[in-house]
Amino acid sequence: MTDQGYTAAKAEHPAYEGDTIWTEQEPLIDRIPRWLAMTGLMVLILGIWFGLTATGLVSPIILPGPGETWDDIVFVGRNMVTGGYVLEAMWTTSRTVLYAFALATALGFSLGVLVGETKFGERAVMPYLVAIDTMPKVAFAPLFIAWLGFGISSKVALATFIATFPIVVSTAAGLYAASENERMLFKSIGATRMQTLLRLKLPTGLPYFFTGLKIAAVGVMAGAITGEFLGGGEGVGALIRVSASQLNTPRVFSLIIYLSFLGLALFLMVVWLERTLVFWRKSDKPSGMG
Question: Do the beta carbons of residue 151 and residue 233 sit within 8 Å?
Answer without folding.
Answer: yes
